[in-house]
């Protein structure tokens, strides 16, 4: 029998400490997503009738759903573009030298 290395023991201990977090994450993240995906292929008051991709075909054919996708895409583009512009403007404002000293004060970064 080969003696176990110290790094192997550390790895096993690390995985044992991570196991509760992985199980918790799976139970409260992956399982609900899987349940929603499985339910999306069914219809009826108790989701007991199999429809396959019928729900998705009905959603794509609905003009209100298409409009909501367009609104969401437009909002996403505006938020990303606005964040980039605002971040660049703030970075350029912070990068300017201040009168009266070399330390910017409010962001606590000193120039050398």
Terminal Cα span: 60 Å
Poorly predicted sequence stretches spanning 5 or more consecutive residues: none
Largest sheet: 2 strands, antiparallel
Secondary-structure-derived class: mainly alpha
Biggest sheet: strands side by side, in what order?
1-2
Beta strand % = under 5%
Q: What pattern of helices and strands is seen along the backbone?
A: HEEHH
Specify Rg, calculated over alpha carbons: 27 Å
Mean pLDDT: 87
Helical stretch tally: 3
Number of strands: 2
Q: What global shape is seen?
A: flat
- Share of helix, binned: 55-70%
Written account of the structure:
This protein has three helices and two strands. Strands 1-2 form a two-stranded antiparallel ribbon. The relative contact order is 0.04. It has helices spanning 6-39, 54-61, 63-95; strands at residues 42-43, 49-50. The protein is flat, with a radius of gyration of 27 Å. It is 67% helix and 4% strand. It is mainly alpha-helical and 112 residues long.
């Amino acid at each position: 029998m080969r003696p176990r290395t110290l790094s192997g023991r550390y790895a096993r201990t690390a995985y044992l400490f991570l196991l509760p977090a992985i199980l918790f994450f799976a139970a409260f993240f992956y399982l609900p997503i899987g349940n929603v995906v499985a339910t999306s292929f069914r219809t009826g008051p108790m989701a007991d009738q199999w429809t396959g991709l019928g729900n998705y075909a009905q959603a794509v054919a609905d003009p209100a759903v298409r409009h909501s996708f367009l609104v969401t895409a437009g909002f996403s583009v505006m938020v990303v573009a606005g964040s980039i512009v605002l971040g660049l403007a703030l970075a350029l404002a912070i990068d300017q030298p201040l009168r009266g000293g070399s330390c910017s004060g409010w962001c606590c970064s000193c120039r050398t």
